[in-house]
Design goal:
This protein has about 375 residues and is mainly beta. It has two helices and 35 strands. The radius of gyration is 27 Å and the shape is elongated.
Length: about 375
């Protein structure tokens, strides 16, 4: 394979007659015709951004195109930037030493796969996008995030590897209805971070970081089947997170707590494992109306489950707790409103109460009937 080094960046604006795809094709920068079966293809190029602009910039384009096997670096904006585009593919490119390795804005139906976006300020960054697939990329050693979404909905982030980023491995800000599955995050400050982001699925991650999965002011998310062991904090929710489900995760061997809720309400913590050397397996502070059920929290340094400072009206049932150093369960609140029954015993109590109510109602009806006779 031969690589062609270019002395100038590529700029394509499909609304500009002097800089559209046809002009780029005539200049030998791409081939193809822009259809689904015959997309425009930019490939096998090496471009030094020269410390300014973007190495490849495509804007105002709705034809089919592909950028593949290119090496771009040293750009003050982005290695590859897409603006108001659709039907694009970025495959197997190397984007390093830029501000953004890959930057996509106001775009949809874009596939970003098998790229390297290392040693940038941001590795892969999306703003106001939807229908984007981000899969199988490496985004390492970036100053902020490996992969970040801002104001973006209905995207899929899967099978990516993010390592040694100064802040987040994967970050979502004000981004709803996204699917984040099967990613690996190592040695980032935050593995996966959601801020003001709702109705998303975080699943099947392998996550070893300062904080494994971290949510802030985020609602109705599913966090399930992740391995968040050997983090500072395993799963950490704070600042008004509501109606999230945390289920069937492994949050063991954390340097702090396995699963933590700070000032959160109406979340469900169900069927998780939080064992071995966490401070607490599950910890709540100032959090209320949550359900904690069917979890295993054993062999931790302090407690299996601990509630403090106004954590009221929580239901804690049917958990397996043993061999925690200071105790299996600790309610250090002023509320004392924990329902500590076995789940099935609780159901039996409710069933009996219901039957008593029915019998009482029938009795009242019969008494009134006999009084009329």
């Amino acid at each position: 394979m031969k690589y062609l080094a270019l002395s100038a960046p590529i700029y394509i604006d499909d609304t500009n007659p002097s800089a559209n795809w046809s002009v780029a094709k005539d200049a030998g920068l791409c081939n193809g015709s822009g259809t689904y079966l015959d997309p425009y293809i930019i490939k096998d190029l090496v471009i030094d951004g020269g410390g300014s602009t973007s190495s490849i910039l495509i804007k105002n384009s709705d034809v089919h195109f592909r950028i593949e096997n290119c090496t771009v670096f040293n750009s003050s904006v982005a290695g590859v930037k897409l603006f108001e585009t659709s039907h694009g593919q970025l495959i197997n490119n190397s984007c390093t030493s830029d501000y953004y390795g890959i930057n996509v804005e106001n775009s949809n139906s874009i596939n970003i796969s098998e790229n390297i976006a290392n040693n940038n300020i941001y590795g892969i960054f999306f703003k106001n996008c939807m229908g984007i697939t981000i899969s199988g990329n490496n985004a390492d050693y970036n100053y902020y995030a490996g992969i970040e979404l801002l104001g973006s909905t209905n995207n899929t982030i899967s099978g990516n590897f993010v390592k040694d980023n100064e802040h987040e491995g994967i970050a979502l800000h004000s981004s709803d209805n996204n699917t984040i599955t099967g990613n690996t995050a190592f040695n980032n400050s935050l593995g996966v971070y959601l801020s003001g982001s709702n109705n998303s699925v975080l699943k099947n991650a392998l996550n070893h970081n300062n904080k494994g999965i971290h949510l802030y002011e985020s609602f109705n998310n599913l966090i399930s089947e992740n391995n968040v062991s050997y983090n500072g904090y395993g799963i950490y929710l704070w600042g008004g997170c509501v109606n999230n489900i945390i289920s069937v995760n492994n949050a063991s061997n954390s340097n702090s707590d396995g699963i933590s809720l700070y000032f959160c309400e109406k979340n469900t913590i169900l069927g998780n494992t939080a064992n071995y050397n966490n401070y607490c397996g599950i910890f709540l502070e100032g959090s209320y109306n949550n359900i904690i059920s069917g979890n295993t929290a054993s062999h931790n340094k302090l407690y299996g489950i601990r509630l403090i400072d106004g954590s009221c009206n929580n239901i804690v049932v049917n958990n397996t707790l043993h061999n925690n150093v200071l105790g299996d369960f600790a309610d250090h609140t002023l509320c004392k409103e924990i329902l500590g029954y076995d789940l099935f015993f609780l159901i039996d109590i409710l069933s009996i109460a219901f039957l008593i109510g029915i019998v009482s109602l029938i009795t009242i009806i019969l008494i009134k009937k006999f009084r009329k006779i």
